[in-house]
Design brief:
The complex is a heterodimer of chains A (328) and B (444). By secondary structure, chain A is mostly helical. Chain A contains 15 helices and no strands. Among the domains of chain B are: 121-279, Rossmann fold (3-Layer(aba) Sandwich), CATH 3.40.50.11540; 372-443, no CATH class. Chain B is 29% helix and 19% strand. In chain B, strands 1-14-13-17-15-16 form a six-stranded mixed sheet. In chain B, helix 1 packs across helix 4. The chains are: A mainly alpha (328), B alpha/beta (444). Chains A and B meet through helix 1 of A and helix 8, strand 15, strand 16, helix 10 and helix 13 of B.
Chain lengths: 328, 444
């Protein structure tokens, strides 16, 4: 007798025979990606409010070219085209939010093609890339269009003290401090989606709450800023900005919530996440303090991305009941 | 009271509301029962009957073979039809005794002489547990008297009754705690007496406040027995997790609970011990939950061991239009069934009929290295890495990072957003590693 005779109203039933567990959290790659896109809505809003609705064009171009590149490469490689998983769209959107207001649309398109093509698909697509694709795209633009990408439009509702310079540049070159209130709100010069700390935090805390972002990465980065930036500040508060300024100014929070936490390019162990986050902050403080550039979030994350495989290798958790940690 | 727990784990939707309010019903004797000779861990039992023999309820039909084995008793009055390979819920056929039940003989029944709990000795308890064929009711079906006979050099200081029932859907242990709390405490006292232990703990997940309330009240005047509330989290009922939550101690890989001074018994096992010692009944019935959105009438049942799953599903009104999967056991560790002629065994705790909506299978995508499996693994393993090594056939590396420690609880695969069948891969890797270890031992 087999399952087909089980009940009269179900003559030809064929039962699934997959193995346990038979339940699932009901998360999927696509669902995760779309939720991260959703978490960026406050940042999109702040960009449109402070820099004008025309900035939506940069985002649209970035997303369209990212998705288009992904589909093209997948078609050429005869792989399944995964337009709807939201991952290429996310890369495009993230890239656009790190660009200056009124950035050239053609350069934006190039950035998206590089982000997906060289940042992601060349490694084999989703899950296989070493570096954060959006940051690869941005690093390329930084090298190719060094002037354009550091030209900051004044926000619509800027307070008097802030000119077109970003708060970090204002401090670095003129020792001008921007008020934390403005940094929190976002009416300062900077990249499209990164100026408003409040908008970034709303999205970031949402992702932590639903379990997509592991709290350890932003937490370790913030601890790192207090540790490294704070020490410098204690040594000479005139010369070095306070850790609070370091956290609220520039791309730090956006990087901590949306860039460093990219699953594929961050560590998988708890201890590893702490090392990674502290490492990013250390390099960031070094660049901001002693480097030629006022900002260094992008480079410090890309730098630590390279160390992720080795961090994972040496931070195996202690197996339950085992006295020593696994060394492999 | 704050609830104790362990690190890691997940919290799947519970679905306990389908059956938690339903009292046990007795399932009527089926036309035919199938008794596999191996319903326990260890050696299969040796049949004592042959084709054509008349048997009665409670009669010994197969005897234990060696120390780690258990005897089997008939759960119906009837006649032996055959002895041979029959399908089992474990997925592969095993030697079984098939008994055709006869009518009008319901009054015939074999039982042991009842024993007095006041004067009984530890050896008498062990002997009765052995001859009643009691096996662990938590699923692994380890012969219970072996657990009650620890080697002389092991000091046991606590008996923990596992009232977690952390698998979704299952409410059998909950119903036992509500309906048979006195028998449960009596069983626990017998276990403590057999082991010479002064401390007994009943650990219950905090999603069962009613059970915690009743049992806390009942043990108030019992010496050395306490009820501990545990956080509702899967796999809280896994032995290692339960011991960690209750005693703070970790059972090392490859070791047993008794190595850290603990013995764990399931709620159902404690009640079976009570029934065997105080009432003289051998283990002939399985208490189980029939649930899932795919079954028409979910129930908690006492079923004669050996009853085909098919009969039970019919008794519960059949399956719904959208049923896609039938599972024996819980949804996290149970086994999907391909033949509903498979019988209920002594340790069967549930039969679930799941719909597409509950199973929610989605397409597998590449690993996103999100680390959710690492975060969730209660044994602190790195499931994604174990799977990677298995896929690359790097079995020695998999062994090095602890693949054999995995208990296949399913927590990792449950969390995986890429829907990778992690447990399936790890099982494969484990098999290969165990094979490798065997070959290594053979060379030496």
């Amino acid at each position: 007798m087999n399952t087909e005779t089980i009940v009269e109203n179900k003559k030809s039933i064929q039962f699934d025979l997959t193995t346990s567990p038979h339940l699932h959290s009901q998360w999927s790659t696509a669902k995760v990606m779309w939720f991260v896109n959703l978490a960026l809505v406050p940042c999109i809003a702040s960009a449109l409010i402070f820099f004008g609705v025309q900035q939506i064009l940069i985002m649209l171009v970035a997303v369209l070219f990212a998705v288009g590149t992904e589909a093209t490469v997948q078609a050429i490689r005869k792989k399944k085209v995964t337009l709807l998983d939201g991952s290429a769209a996310l890369t495009g959107l993230l890239l656009s939010l790190t660009l200056p207001p009124n950035f050239s649309l053609s350069a934006t398109a190039i950035g998206s093609v590089v982000a997906i093509g060289l940042g992601k698909q060349i490694f084999g697509g989703i899950g296989y890339n070493i570096f954060n694709p959006a940051l690869v795209g941005r690093a390329f633009l930084q090298a190719a269009f060094p002037v354009q990408i550091t030209t900051w439009t004044k926000p619509n509702y800027a307070v008097d003290s802030v000119t077109s310079a970003t708060p970090l540049a204002a401090f670095k070159f003129d020792k001008l401090l921007t008020e934390t209130y403005s940094l929190a709100l976002g009416n300062v010069g900077g990249s499209l989606g990164e100026t408003s700390a409040i908008a970034v935090l709303i999205g970031g805390i949402f992702l932590i709450a639903i379990g997509i972002v592991n709290w350890r990465i932003p937490a370790s980065m913030i601890v790192g800023i207090f540790l490294f930036g704070g020490s410098l500040w204690l040594i000479n508060p005139q010369q070095y900005p306070s850790p609070v300024f370091q956290i609220f100014a520039g791309s730090f929070l956006f990087g901590a919530m949306f860039m460093a936490t990219d699953w594929v390019t961050s560590p998988i162990t708890a201890k590893g996440m702490w090392i990674y986050g502290l490492g990013i902050s250390l390099i960031l403080i070094l660049i901001r303090t002693f480097g030629g550039l006022p900002e260094g979030v992008m480079y410090s994350i890309l730098f630590m991305n390279a160390f992720v495989p080795i961090i994972n290798r040496y931070t195996h958790p202690r197996i339950f009941g085992e006295l020593k940690e696994v060394k492999k | 009271m704050s609830s104790k727990t362990f690190r890691g784990g997940v919290h799947p939707k519970e679905y306990k509301e389908l059956t938690e309010h339903l009292a046990f019903e007795y399932f009527p004797a089926p036309d035919e029962i199938i008794l596999p000779l191996s319903q326990h861990l260890g050696k299969e039992a040796k049949p004592l009957v042959k084709k054509g023999d008349e048997v009665i309820i409670g009669q010994l039909v197969a005897q234990a073979d060696g120390f780690i084995s258990a005897p089997i008793h008939s759960s119906v009055n009837g006649k032996v039809l055959s002895i041979g390979k029959e399908v089992t819920p474990l997925g592969f056929p095993k030697d079984s005794i098939v008994i055709k039940s006869s009518e009008n003989s319901a009054d015939k029944k074999f039982s042991f002489p009842p024993l007095d709990p006041e004067t009984i000795t530890p050896d008498e308890i062990r002997q009765r547990v052995a001859e009643a064929g009691i096996v662990g009711q938590g699923g692994a079906a380890f012969p219970t008297y072996v657990k009650l006979s620890p080697p002389k050099d092991k000091v046991i200081n606590v008996v923990i009754i596992n009232g977690c029932e952390c698998e979704p859907y299952l409410t059998r242990d909950y119903r036992f705690m509500i309906e048979r709390h006195d028998d449960l405490i009596s069983g626990l006292k017998l276990i403590m007496k057999a082991l010479g232990v002064k401390r007994g703990v009943i650990g219950i997940e905090d999603n069962k406040p009613e059970a915690i309330k009743i049992l806390s009240h009942k043990v108030k005047y019992e010496d050395g027995i306490e009820v501990i509330s545990l956080k509702t989290k899967y796999p809280q009922g896994a032995e290692k997790m339960l011991i960690k939550a209750v005693t703070g101690k970790e059972v090392p890989p490859g070791k047993l609970p008794m190595d850290v001074g603990a013995v764990i018994q399931n709620i159902g096992t404690a009640i079976a011990i009570h029934d065997a010692v105080i009432k003289g009944e051998p283990l002939t019935h399985a208490a189980l939950t029939v649930s899932g959105l795919g079954i028409c009438k979910p129930k908690n049942l006492y079923v004669p061991v050996g009853t085909p799953i098919q009969n039970i599903i019919e008794f519960c009104g059949g399956v719904t239009e959208d049923a896609v999967k039938i599972i024996v056991g819980g949804p996290m560790m149970g086994i999907a069934q391909y033949d509903l002629q498979a019988p209920v065994m002594k340790a069967t705790s549930g039969i679930l009929v799941l719909t597409k909506k509950e199973v929610a299978e989605s397409e597998e995508t590449p690993c996103l290295r999100c680390g959710q499996c690492v975060d969730a693994c209660p044994l602190n393993l790195m499931p994604t890495k174990l799977v990677r090594y298995t896929q690359l056939k790097r079995y020695e590396d998999a062994e090095g990072i602890g693949i054999t420690v995995c208990m296949e609880c399913g927590t990792c695969a449950f969390t995986c957003p890429a829907n990778i069948p992690l447990v399936q891969w790890i099982r494969l890797g484990k098999q290969k590693v165990l094979q490798m270890q065997k070959e290594r031992a053979a060379v030496k």
